[in-house]
Amino acid sequence: MRQTVLSVVLEVQPASASRLREIIRGIRKAEETVKTDADWYYDRLRHGVPLLQFMSMTVCEDAQFDPVLVIECNFDGAPGPFWAQLENLYSKELRDMLRCCQRPRGKLQALFDHVTAPESRAAIAPFLEAATIWPAVFHIGNRGLPRERSERETALFDYCQKRLDDEPALRSRTATEVHAALRTGALAQFPWLNKPEQPQVSTAENIADWANLIGFLVLAVAVLTVPGLLLRSTFPSWLPALLGILGTVWAGFHLNWMKDPALPGLMGLPNPPVIIFGIGGVALFGAVVSVGADRFLHWSCVSTVGAMICSAGALLAVILAWIDVLETADPSQTAPPLNEQKIRDQIASEDRITQNHMISIVHLKPGVLRAILIRAGLWGLGYFLRLQARDGYLASMRTIHFAHWAFVSNGSRLMFHSNFDGTWESYLDDFIEKAHAGLTLAWSSGVGFPPARFLAFEGATHGLAFKNWARHSMTASQFWFSAYRDLTVNQIERQVLVADGLRTPTLPEVKAADWARRL
Amino acid sequence: MTGADPLRPAATGFGAKVGSFLFAHLPPVFGLLRWIWPVPHFGATWMLTRYDDVREGFLNDPAFMVPYKGKLDVIMGGVPFFLGMADTPEYRRDVGAMRAIVRPADIKDRLIPEMNKRAEAVVAGANGEIEVVDTLVRQLTFDVLNEYFGVFAPPGVDLRVWATRLFEFQFADQSNDPSLRKEVDQYAPGLLTLIDNLIAERRQSGADIDDVLGRALKAQAASPDPEAAGYSDKQIRSALIGFVAGGLPQPPMIAPQAMEQLLRRPDALAGAQDAARRDDDVALAGYVFEALRFDPLGPAMPRVLVEDVTVAQGTSRAVTIPKGATVYLSFMSAMRDPRRVADPDTFNPKRPSSDYIHFGMGLHQCFGIHINMALVPLMLKPLLRREGLRRKPGPDGHLAKRGPFADRLVVQYRP
Questions:
Q1: What number of CA atoms fall less than 13 Å from residue A18's CA on the CB side?
Q2: What is the DSSP string of A133-198?
Q3: Residues A2 and A106 in one domain
Q4: Into how many domains does chain A fold?
Q5: Residue at a domain's end among A329, A349, A381
Q6: Residues B309, B301: contact at Cβ < 8 Å?
Q7: What pLDDT, on a 0 to 100 scale, did the predictor assign at position B2?
Q8: Distance of CA B256 to CAs A361, B94, B158, B251, Å?
Q9: For an interface test with B, which of A37, A87, A88, A92 has the most B Cβ atoms less than 10 Å from its Cβ?
Q10: Rounded to an integer, what is the distance from CA B137 to the centroid of its chain?
C-alpha cells in the first residue's frame, strides 16, 4: 500500500499573515467544537478524509524571508484522491487561505489566479497538487499500513484485551488454547481475518527500493570514476595517476589533522589521519595499477580500471578535505536567541496526545559543494532508509510515524517535519543518542547547526547545542491532526502481529507463546 | 392507480441496439476519454469527463446554466420553478419556502419509519419472489412520498405514468421525440389541474393535515403577501409538480440499479445484507450508494454556457468553450476518475462523500438529496434482510433497462 508524504509551501503576503493564522485556527476550532463522539475531536476530518494519517498547517515566520504557509500531509494512496477529499471538506477555508498567499510566478500563476479569483468556484486540488513540494528524504514508521487497516486492527486488539479482562480464566490456559479461544470469537466479529492482507512492502516496491539504492550507488561511483576514465582514454596513463596523487596530497595538506572535537566535552569521532591515509591509499593503489598495467603488462583495460580507482580515491579525498576546510571555518550558533513567547507557544501545543509534531525550517550554508553534497546525501539516505527502516525502526528508534526533510525557498532553506511518539525532549534525546549520524548528515548544512565533521560526525552529538538550535528553528503549528491519537508506532506494529497470529488457524505452543506476549 | 406500464415501449431496431450496447459500456469509453480527450466535443456539444472539470461545471452555475426552463414551462404551464432558475432572489425565495416545509426532521420522524413499515409489508407479502423496479421500489416511492407531499391521484389517473413521462420529457428526451411530446401535452395539463383541484379541495375542506401541501397552505394563510413568500397557489403547485415529476421517478431507476450491482458482487451483497440485518442504516447506505457509483442515475447532466468559459484553466488541458454550447457534465465518469477517486474500480462501501456526485453539486443539487439518501437504501433493506436472496433464474433475474430507465429485475428469497 502506497503512502505519500508531501508538503505545500506558499509565500504569504506579510499583511495577510495574521488573517491566515486566524483562518487556520478557525478550522482547528471548528474541528474541536464539532464533537460528535464522546471522546474524540476532529471527527469531521477523520471521516471526511479517510486517507489522512497526519496533517499540519503552519505559518512560519523568518527574519530574512516573507512568511510561508506550510501544509504538511501524510496519507494513504496517491495525492489526487487525498486533495479531492480535503477540498470537499475545507473548500472555502482553503480558498481563503490561498488568497492570503502571494501570487506565484511561473507555471503556477494561471492556476493560482483561477482558484483565487473573486467568486471563483474552480477546483483547488489541481493547484495544491501542482504546488506540492516532494521530500528530499522521508521516513514512514508503519510502512505499508494504511489507516483503515490500523483502525481495524485496533478494534481487534481491543477485543482481545477485553476478552482477557472479562475472562480471567483464559490467562491460566496455554498460549495455544488462548489463541484458539480468541480466534474463534474474533472470526465471527472480524470476518476480514479470513482474508489475507496485502504485504506491507510489495514485491514491486521491494524491487524498486533495491533498484533505486543500487542505481544511486552506481551513479555515485560513476561520478567519482568518470574523470579517471576520460583522462585515461585521452592521455597517457601517468597523467591521471599523477593528477590523482597530486589531488590526494592537496587533500592531505588541507585536511584538519586534529582529532579534537569542535566543541569541548566530546571526543572527536572520526579519525582524520585514518581517513586521509585510507582514501589516499586507494588513490595511490589505483595510480600504481594504472601505470603498471599500462607500462609493464600492456593491459589497457586494467590500466583504465586503475585510473578510475585512482580518480575515485583522489576525488573523495579532495571532497572530504574541502568539506573539512569549510567545516573548520564554519561559524556556529551555540546559543541562538530564543523567543520566550514562541517557545511557550510551542510547549503549549505539545503533549496533548500520545504523539507530537515538529516543524523546523533552517537556512542552508552557501557553496556549490555543500549544495551538491546535501542533495546527494539526502537522496542516498532516502533510498537507504527505504530498505533499512521497514519494521518501524529507524536505527533503534521506533517512535516516528512520518518524518521528512524538503528543500524550500528555491533550495535556500531546509524544512523538517516529524510526527513522533512521546515528548519532544525524549524524541531528540533518542535521535542524539541513536541516530546522530543520519541527523547530522541531513542537517549539518543548516546555518547555525552545531559544528560537524565530514558531514555526518559530531553535530547532533552536541546535545544541548543541538536542542537549542532545533527549538530556535521550530514554529508551533496552528493546526495539527493525528488520525489515531492513542497509537504509537510500536503499538501499530504490535497489532499487526496479533492480527497475523489470529489469521493462522492453529499455532504451535512456541509460536503461540511468542504471539501471546504481544497481548 | 391503473396497471399501465410507466415506461414507454422500448426502442427497436439496429440503432437502438447499438445505443443500448454503448450505454451499457460507457465506463471504459469514459476511461479512454479521460485519458486521451478529457473534453471531447462535437460541434456545439461538449462533454467534461474529469472529476475536477465536472465539479467546476456544477459549481460554476452562473456560467453553466441549467437548460431546463423551456421544458419546465411546458410542464408547469409557464410558472417558474426553481430547477430552471439562475441564482436569483426568486430562486432563493422559492427554495427557501420549500425548505421551510420539507423539513429535515421529517426524514427521521416520519419518512424513515413509514418506509421501513411499508417496505417490510411489500416484501413479506411477495412470498419469496418480487419484481424490484415496479412492484417494490416504484410502488413504495409513490405511496410514501405522495402521501408526504399530500398529492393523491383520483381514480383513473396513474401518477406513476404521468410523472415518469414528464421526467423523461424533462431530462431524457434529447431528441425531442414527438410521440413523447404528444403524451406530455396530455399529462402536463392533467397534473396542473390535479394539483389545482387538490389545493382547492384542501382549502375548502379546512382539514388540518400535516403534509407538505397542508404546511404550504398554512404558510400561505399566515403570510400577508403569499407570492412574495413563495406560497402562492401557483408556486405551491409548481413545487409539488416538481417534486412528483422530477423526484419520484428517480428511486425506481437507482434502487434497482444498486441491487443489480450488489447481485454482481457476492462479497458486497453479503456485506449489505449483514448491515441490513444489523439495522446499521449508515453502513447499508454506504453499500447502496457505492453500488450505484458503478451504475448511477445517468451518464451526465446538461448545462448551457451563458458566456465563454475556459475549463481547467492553468492546466495543459485548458480549453475555452464558447457561449451557447451545450456541455454535458459526466458525473458517471467523474466518479470513476482515478485522479480524484481512490481505487475507483474497487467496491468500497466506506468511501468519503467527496467520491460521490450522485445528486449533482452546487446550486442545482437535487432538492431531495437527503430524502433519497435516507429512503433509497430502506426500500431495499427488507429484501436484503431475507435469507437466500438471489436472482430469479433466467433473463428476469438480470436488470433490464428501457433507455435510461430500469425496467425489470426479479429476485427470489426464502419467504
A1: 1
A2: E--SEEEETTTT--HHHHHHHHHHHHHHHHHHHH-GGGGGS-HHHHHHHHHHHHHHH-GGGGSPPP
A3: yes
A4: 3
A5: A329
A6: no
A7: 44
A8: 56, 32, 21, 8
A9: A88
A10: 13
C-alpha dihedral, A48 to A53 to A54 to A55, nearest 10°: -30
pLDDT digits (tens, 9 = 90+) for B354-379: 999 999 999 999 999 999 999 999 99
* Least confident piece of the model among A451-460, B209-218, B383-392: A451-460
| pLDDT exceeds cutoff 60 at B54 | yes
Shortest Cα distance from B340 to chain A (angstroms)? 4
- Are A325 and A386 in contact, with CB atoms under 8 Å apart? no
* Residue whose C-alpha is closest to residue B413's, from B385, B386, B373: B386
Interface pTM (ipTM) of the complex? 0.87
In percent, the amount of chain B with pLDDT more than 90 equals 88
Give the residue ranges of chain A where pLDDT is below 50. 38, 267
Domains and CATH numbers, chain B: 14-412 (1.10.630.10)
Say yes or no: A25 and A129 in one domain: yes
Question: Is residue B48 within 8 Å of B330, Cβ to Cβ?
Answer: yes
How close is the nearest chain B Cα to the Cα of A438, in Å? 35
Say if A300 is an interface residue toward chain B (CB within 8 Å). no
Are the beta carbons of B59 and A83 separated by less than 8 Å? no
Residue of A nearest to B336 (CA): A81
Q: Give the Cα separation of B107 and A92 in Å (integer).
A: 28
In CATH, what number is assigned to the domain containing residue A78? 3.30.70.100
Whether B313 contacts chain A with CB within 8 A = yes
Q: What is the pLDDT, as a whole number, of residue A300?
A: 82
Parallel, antiparallel or unpaired: strands B45-48 and B326-329: parallel
Report residue B138 CA to chain centroid gap.
12
Q: A126 and A3 in one domain?
A: yes
Quick check: B265 contacting A, CB < 8 Å? Answer: no
The whole-number pLDDT of residue A335 equals 74
Secondary structure of residue A11 in the 3-state scheme: strand
Q: Which residues of A touch B355 (CB under 8 A)?
A: 81, 84-85
Asked if A402 is an interface residue toward chain B (Cβ–Cβ < 8 A), one would say no
Contact residues, chain A, for B62 at CB < 8 Å: 119
Return the pLDDT at A390: 83
What distance in Å separates the CA atoms of residue B140 and residue B133, rounded to the nearest whole number?
10
Amino acid symbol at A70: V
pLDDT digits (tens, 9 = 90+) for B71-117: 999 999 999 999 999 999 999 999 999 999 999 999 999 999 999 99
Task: Look up residue B256 and give its DSSP letter.
Answer: H
- Picking from A323, A248, A238, A331, the residue whose alpha carbon sits closest to that of residue A289 is A238
CA-CA distance, A66 to A64, in Å (whole number)?
Answer: 7
- Does residue B56 belong to the interface with chain A, where contact is any CB pair within 8 Å? yes
CB A263 within 8 A of CB A462: yes
A426 interfacial to chain B (CB closer than 8 Å):
no
Cβ–Cβ under 8 Å, residues A458 and A261: yes
Q: How far is B16 from chain A (nearest CA, A)?
A: 37
List chain B residues with CB under 8 Å of A49.
Answer: 352
CA-to-CA distance for A491 and A158, rounded, in angstroms? 12
Contacts of B342 in chain A (CB under 8 A): 51, 77-78, 81
| Domain limits for position A300 | 235-329
DSSP letter (8 states) at residue B138: I
CB contact under 8 A, A84 and B59: no
Cα of B228 to nearest chain A Cα, Å: 28
How do residues A389-401 score in pLDDT, each as one tens digit?
Answer: 888 888 778 899 9
